[in-house]
Amino acid sequence: MSEPIRWQKSSFSGGNGPNCLEIAHQDDSVLLRESNTPTTVITTDRAKLAAFIQGVKAGEFDHLLD
Length: 66
Known about the structure:
Elements: E1 8-9, E2 21-26, E3 29-34, E4 37-45, H1 46-57
């Protein structure tokens, strides 16, 4: 029997509101979902997530927040 998925929210997401992205890992996969639609899950791998996070840290997606 596998362990239950343990979802994590950012401390910057505003607590328990409905506008949160949540992340978890299961085996070699990284799982992403929105707290207001928890049954819709995006699956990726650690290397792709690492590349995305590097882009976020470099400001490559800042234009999406304007």
